[in-house]
Amino acid sequence: MDPEALLFSIFTPEGRDNPYPALAELRRTEPIHYNAAFDTYFLTRYTDCQAVLTHPGFLVPDLDWCAREVPDWRDHPSADFFYSSMLRSNGADHARLRRLVGGGFSPRRVAALRHTVRDITARLLDDFADATSEGGSVNFQELVGYPLPVAVIGHLIGVPDGEQGQFHRLGQDAGRILEPVRSPEDWQRADRAVVALRAYFAELIALRRARPADDLTSILLAVRDADDGRLTGTELVDTLLLVLVAGFETTASLLGLAVHALLAHRDQWELIAAAPELAPQAVEETLRWDTPVQMTERVAAAPIDVAGVTVPEGANVTTVLAAANRDPQRHPDPDMFDIRRTDIKVLGFSAGPHYCLGAALARVEGAELLEQLPKRFPALAAAGPPLRRESISLRAFENLPLITRG
Question: Keyword annotations for this protein (predicted)?
């Protein structure tokens, strides 16, 4: 197949189920592929993707980019939120926001959350045990995969337990803005969700101003009210919104992908059941083998050479993380899922200035689940084929039916 056909094949239902053979062939035949239809350079080698993500001359598409490329962006609250956020800012603005928010994800704070993550995981697995006690199958994503990161990120932000249920749907809808190609329905869903979440977080901020607590909202309020490094009111609201959406969507995807991969490789499931200390390595291998975030974009601020190809100023570049993490030049036998693999270096949380602030917390959640789940349900098995979400950028399950055998 020619490079264009290979690329488009990954957007078909079959390609969404398993994009890796096509990506491997694209990496072998044309690892830096310019596609006119998408007007972007697709990169599929690990070294090239890492170089772009860490190069200061490659910027994320920001509000200036949005104003050029999305003329009606002012009509979309989700575009205003997304392209003004820390995720889509560059230079001094990005450094300022990241420095102010970073305290909420410090090693000390993540370490302090470990007991909370453990307790939430145990409680959700109690619910899972009850739901499967009579031998029927249940949707793991609905009972555990989504509730776990929603509860953890809700605890971090300071959202009361009883108010967290709404965030699954609203977070998913707001996340439609992350898709590289958005339909009118995507825009409508994202816009409605952003409006609702902005209103919710404005109320939460007012509550925390009156009654501070040990949570991220109170931390950012203190920053907002300080004399230096001030956050605007809109930045405060939108930062909490970003932490919610980014904090549970990719982690929920990771949890489902990890469980599915282990159950599909029964020897690996039995290995982690016998040696739960391998849970952190199983998380890393999942991030490498079945990357939740498939690809991410950058824009060249000047003409820049990438492995002998000159990327023009203003050109779009898409780093295909799913292909990079399976590059045999970085990870030998890349199609083998092996939780004992060593020297894993993944780009699943990006790299460089935009390396994910919540990466450590996501790893803690994944490791805790993979430590507890095989202990409690050693005979856990798939109850049927999973249903994947219709998404280009995010690899996730809508339904992961599982059954406990005894």
Answer: Heme, Iron, Metal-binding, Monooxygenase, Oxidoreductase
Per-residue pLDDT of the chain (406 residues; tens, 9 = 90+): 799 999 999 988 888 899 999 999 999 999 999 999 889 999 999 999 999 999 999 999 998 888 888 888 888 999 999 888 999 999 998 998 898 888 888 888 899 999 999 999 999 999 999 999 988 899 999 999 999 999 999 999 999 888 888 888 898 898 888 887 788 898 999 999 999 999 999 999 999 999 999 999 998 888 777 655 577 888 899 999 999 888 888 999 999 999 999 999 999 999 999 999 999 999 999 999 999 999 999 999 999 999 999 999 999 999 999 999 999 999 999 999 999 999 999 999 999 999 999 999 999 999 999 999 999 999 999 999 999 988 888 899 999 999 997 5
User: 32 φ, ψ to 5°?
Assistant: -120, 100
C-alpha 34/C-alpha 397 separation (Å) is: 30
**Residues 96, 117, 368, 288, Cα dihedral to 10°:** -30
394 and 293 in contact (C-beta within 8 Å)?
Answer: yes
Cα-to-chain-centroid distance, residue 224? 27
Q: At what angle do helices 266-274 and 359-376 cross, to 10 degrees?
A: 90
The amino acid at residue 399 is N
- What is the pTM for the complete model shown? 0.94
- What the chain holds in terms of domains, given with CATH numbers, is 3-55+67-334+358-403 (1.10.630.10)
